[in-house]
């Protein structure tokens, strides 16, 4: 996936006009009560066009009632190479799951 | 919600060309005059769609390929409904009308027949036709002819987006770089001679009072809309004379024949083929 390329300072304006459009991440909500779900990404020159492009690319089959677009550069992500260590802590901690506990006798509506 | 995708995919509910075809089968038949009117609306949509389809794989960015492709498909949808309804007057199907009529039997306007040119010229043509169609369909929803009103009600919502798309690009190109301004201004200069024809009345409209929308009535609001967009886009209405056209829409620009040759070749080479 191409990332937006910042023009080098020495580049003249005619060249930098041709830089690729920035990348946007698209989130689609399919109906009321559900959350927005990441659908993919796209290129657009600015935020208004990004919403329109998202409409054209990701809601062609009636997938959504709401769209969010976010500049890809604004998303801070965890490091995929460090996922072992980063996500190690919760492993083995069964007591953080409801199923770890036995239901007390006589408790209704649980 | 188990087993259901978070991004649900459904066709949704809207009037489809197949519904019009069903109504026709059930005996709903357009009069000769209404059919002529539906033919004009349908042919504008069909020829415009054929033109716009050319952009797929050729637009400045992949996203624009899809945007223009979607707009073309919307227009194909409108064309199918209008042509199906028009065909009911003569026992012809939408395909009969799209693929088996000659140039002089089409009723498209000069504007939609104009070549795509560069992206600026296509956007200029889009702004004009979408603004015109928007004014037209938003009034046609009140037609005494229920089928025309129903097609317009579906179409006006889609054309609203087409107009918005063209408007966004007109403002960005007009108020963009020197080069983009030059190109969009040249685009409007080349399509403007064909604007006048869209707003000309002929005898047909005297016979279709309450059913058709009189084109001349749309001009004022069209001009007001264009003026507002142009002000934002730092563009001026081109000072050019209208081209010699034909308000009855029997005559066409020299471009239509070539367009039809490409559009119709498959159907004529393999009559009865389905795909």
Task: Describe the secondary-structure layout.
The complex is a heterodimer of chains A (110) and B (275).
Chain A: H1 13-16, E1 23-29, E2 37-43, H2 47-58, E3 66-71, H3 83-86
Antiparallel strand pairs in A: 1-2, 1-3
Chain B: H1 17-25, H2 32-53, H3 62-87, H4 94-99, H5 110-113, H6 119-140, H7 146-174, H8 178-191, H9 203-207, H10 219-233, H11 256-269
Helix pairs in contact in B: 1-3, 2-3, 3-7, 6-7, 6-8, 6-10, 7-8, 7-10
Structural description of this entry:
- The complex is a heterodimer of chains A (110) and B (275).
- Chain A is α+β, with helices and mostly antiparallel strands.
- Chain A has three helices and three strands; from the N terminus they run αββαβα.
- Chain A has a three-stranded antiparallel beta sheet, covered by helices on one side.
- Chain A is flat.
- In chain B, 42% of the residues are buried.
- The mean pLDDT of chain B is 94.
- At the A-B interface, strand 2 and helix 2 of A face helix 3 and helix 7 of B.
- Chain B: InterPro entries: Aromatic_CoA_ox/epox (IPR052703), Ferritin-like (IPR012347), Ferritin-like_SF (IPR009078), PaaA_PaaC (IPR007814), PaaC (IPR011882).
How would you sum up this structure in a few lines?
With 110 residues, chain A is of the alpha+beta class.
CATH superfamily of chain B: Ferritin, core subunit, four-helix bundle
* Backbone structural class of chain A: alpha+beta
Q: How many H/I helices of chain B?
A: 11
Strand content of chain B: under 5%
What is the N-to-C order of secondary-structure elements of chain B (H for helix, E for strand)?
HHHHHHHHHHH
Tell me the CATH topology of chain B. Ferritin
Keyphrases for this structure?
heterodimer; A: alpha+beta; Ubiquitin-like (UB roll); 3 strands; 18% helix; disordered N terminus; B: 275 residues; mainly alpha; Ferritin; globular; PaaB (chain A); 1,2-phenylacetyl-CoA epoxidase subunit B (chain A); PaaB_sf (chain A)
């Amino acid at each position: 996936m191409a990332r937006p390329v910042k023009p080098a300072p020495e580049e003249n304006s005619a060249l930098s006009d041709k830089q690729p459009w920035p990348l946007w991440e698209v989130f689609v909500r399919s109906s009321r009560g559900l959350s927005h779900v990441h659908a993919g990404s796209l290129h657009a020159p600015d935020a208004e066009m990004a919403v329109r492009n998202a409409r054209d690319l990701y809601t062609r089959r009636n997938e959504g009632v709401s769209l969010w677009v976010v500049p890809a550069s604004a998303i801070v992500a965890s490091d995929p190479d460090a996922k072992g260590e980063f996500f190690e802590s919760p492993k083995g901690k069964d007591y953080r799951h409801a199923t770890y506990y036995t239901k007390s006798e006589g408790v209704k509506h649980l | 919600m188990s087993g259901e995708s978070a991004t649900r995919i459904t066709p949704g509910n809207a009037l489809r060309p197949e519904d019009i075809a069903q109504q026709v089968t059930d005996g709903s038949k357009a009069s000769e005059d209404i059919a002529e009117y539906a033919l004009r609306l349908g042919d504008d949509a069909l020829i415009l769609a054929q033109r716009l389809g050319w952009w797929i794989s050729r637009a400045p960015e992949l996203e624009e390929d899809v945007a223009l492709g979607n707009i073309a498909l919307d227009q194909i949808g409108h064309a199918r409904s209008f042509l199906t309804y028009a065909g009911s007057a003569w026992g012809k199907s939408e395909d009969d009308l799209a693929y088996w009529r000659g140039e002089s039997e089409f009723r498209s306007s000069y504007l939609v027949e104009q070549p795509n040119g560069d992206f600026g010229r296509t956007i200029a043509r889009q702004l004009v036709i979408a603004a015109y169609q928007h004014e037209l369909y938003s009034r046609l929803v009140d037609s005494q002819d229920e089928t025309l009103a129903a097609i317009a009600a579906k179409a006006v919502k889609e054309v609203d987006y087409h107009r918005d798309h063209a408007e966004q690009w007109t403002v960005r190109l007009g108020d963009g770089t020197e080069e983009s301004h030059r190109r969009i201004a040249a685009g409007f200069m080349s399509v403007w001679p064909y604007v006048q024809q869209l707003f000309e009345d002929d005898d047909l409209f005297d016979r279709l009072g309450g059913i058709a929308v009189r084109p001349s009535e749309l001009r004022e609001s069209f001009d007001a809309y264009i003026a507002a967009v142009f002000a934002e886009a730092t563009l001026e209405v081109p000072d050019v004379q209208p081209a010699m056209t034909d308000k009855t829409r029997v005559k066409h620009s020299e471009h239509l024949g070539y367009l039809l040759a490409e559009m119709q070749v498959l159907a004529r080479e393999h009559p009865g083929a389905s795909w």
